[in-house]
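Teaching assistant here, posting this on the class forum so everyone can see the example we discussed in section. The complex has two components, and the goal was to see what a joint structure prediction looks like when all of them are supplied at once.
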Amino acid sequence: MMKIMMSESNQTWYETLLTRTQLTNEKVNQAVKDILDNVKKDKDAAVKRYTYAFDGALLPSLRVTEEEINEAYLNVDAQLIRNLKYAKSNIEDYHQKQSSQDFVIERKGVRLGQRTRAIETVGIYVPGGTAAYPSTVLMNAIPAKMAGVKRIIMVTPPSRDGKINPNILVAAHLVGIDAIYKVGGAQAIGALAYGTEEIPKVNKIVGPGNIYVAVAKKMVMGDVGIDMIAGPSEVLIIADETANSREVASDLMAQAEHDVLAASILITTSSDLAQRVQDDINTLSMKLRRRDIIQKAMDQYGAIVIVKSLDEAIAIANQIAPEHLEIMTKNPEEVFDKIEHAGSVFLGRFTPEPVGDYVAGPNHTLPTSGTATFASPLSVYDFVKRTSYISYTKEALYEASSYVIGLADAEGLDAHACAIKVRFDEDKR
Amino acid sequence: MMKIMMSESNQTWYETLLTRTQLTNEKVNQAVKDILDNVKKDKDAAVKRYTYAFDGALLPSLRVTEEEINEAYLNVDAQLIRNLKYAKSNIEDYHQKQSSQDFVIERKGVRLGQRTRAIETVGIYVPGGTAAYPSTVLMNAIPAKMAGVKRIIMVTPPSRDGKINPNILVAAHLVGIDAIYKVGGAQAIGALAYGTEEIPKVNKIVGPGNIYVAVAKKMVMGDVGIDMIAGPSEVLIIADETANSREVASDLMAQAEHDVLAASILITTSSDLAQRVQDDINTLSMKLRRRDIIQKAMDQYGAIVIVKSLDEAIAIANQIAPEHLEIMTKNPEEVFDKIEHAGSVFLGRFTPEPVGDYVAGPNHTLPTSGTATFASPLSVYDFVKRTSYISYTKEALYEASSYVIGLADAEGLDAHACAIKVRFDEDKR
């Protein structure tokens, strides 16, 4: 049951929420460290050993074959392909706008600028089991493709029979993934970070995963790039008396069904709405397949908070910096304008969060657990890198020389000063 | 003495170079973990304890006062202020071009887009002692300022007498830092990440530091944002027979004087140049203050590699993905065009790297140790975060509904499907 509380009753109720993802489990850390070390050392042999131990699959080779992809097409619903293509097209339209910004500045004798190129090789982690989502493939691969990444590798854990969910394979084929390997967990992250006989080393790893995957990504960070450390999902809904309680209830449940750690929060100015939402959740959840997960998540991290004003609701939202923010008020745009921190914002009654999860176009890989205060949705920018460049003429360098030499001297770096002086030595001879 | 080698003689000589920064020292890890835990728990008391233990300074209060800043102005060379202002103006011009990209897409009944806002509070770490550089302050604070960061906090370790290098204080004042605290090392990172009585918690921490600072940044990553894990500095110079050996030698030394771990590498098509550079280093280094550091760095990580062609030189450069790349060839632009990975590129004879360190305009905080394959120079983009937003009309949602419901069903998420269906329930009644 969702708790209903008055905003002033407990000012720190959301602290449990923001700290529910801290990766401080020493046992997990040690296990992941061992896995990474072994994959680095024994490569494919270690990967196959762990895949047998954790996934129960004994694999002669890790790479998914063309035949397996063809077979997957025979095993998926024909509608799925139509649906994935519709989503793909909208996701491409949105990410196309995230173009890179090359520029050049010219001043007397000086030319400098910024040049952008795609990252060469990228690895995408896609979870397996019940969390094997084709939408994950689209949302991670499409921005990489649009950035111009040359080689996109996908890893995902196999089931006991050594197979991969056909929906995932079809999605991967549709977006043009270059190679797919049957490996999950920390061993998959190790293989992508350090390379094995079969699996190529990548420059950057993206994609969601469980705690082992998250810890492994953090550990290999620096050896390769990573996107972000994803935590469990959350939605915060700001609603006033104009909102429809069944719609609010449904959206809160859609979030909660992801994971028992997911957080669903309603902040409302209407105590009447609060009561009706609580009732509607109880009624509506009964016919949902994942009602147990929904209930657990709501018991632990769900909350309905009654506030005195929308400004108070906005202040709470900015405190929480939610991954997903739905605004169901009379004037959603006005509220949005005052929102400082949020991953993605859904405006108005007819923009439920699932439309953004799948087909609207913006990325569904979003900063969780309050990290929207400093992090951003996954984007084309995550798949490029910039190089700055500088070119001086002799005259321009001469003009700048007293400043450079002065600063080098102030920092006690006389070889820096020497590098300028030596260019004009001959002039003095 | 710089080693001269033929490119084919040892294909893996640069591997030591790319791995010289791996943060795998267990003792350091444990020490940093303890410091972070204690700062989190005891806040200012822990910070002051560590500052006394590590820096020898017993401080009643951590914040730098206005009087101390005024005093610093009296203690710096008047020329320094002129030099810093010149650098500041060029750095601002360059970073101004890194504007954020807001956009909106409208299609029938759908409005969506990307909105950018500055990160609210940022902490800048500035090393102390002999590596207390005013240029570090400029390069980290200016992009934050241009992004619109509201509050910029600086931390830097005090000397034994409890004072901060006046050059640093003046630079901080010139760029408009909001508050400066006398604390360094892992304890400074802990204070910024979790907040103390005196030091505010920030949203993101940037700036270079020693191994303790780097490890601490990696550990707090996720609780706050960080820029990158900076390793020791490196320069790679591609030169042909047209290059001047004294200039090449000076630039290699300018890099090496930073740190005994710094790497200076010359890749040249001219064995004649190779020999002359080696000789010139021996001659020129004699009169430099940091000749011992230069010698050690060059012995360990320095190399002069003779290649058969510029294409071979380019291939090696792309393998190493150097932080700084100088191109001193007949046609530098042609070489640059084939460079895939580099932090910053310096084109032609009159663009020695120190001009970029100080005054040209591009940022000098660059990806090290091969991370230029996926990372970029520090920029305005590092101080903003993006929020996506979506707004659908009822008709637009209806049109998208079969796709969303289909994908939700394929993923086994029926509460997601319910969130769409419930919006049209009433229509059916």
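For the discussion questions: Chain A has three domains: 26-226, 231-374, 393-428. The CA atoms of residues 42 and 196 of chain A lie 8 Å apart. Think about how each of these relates to the inputs above.
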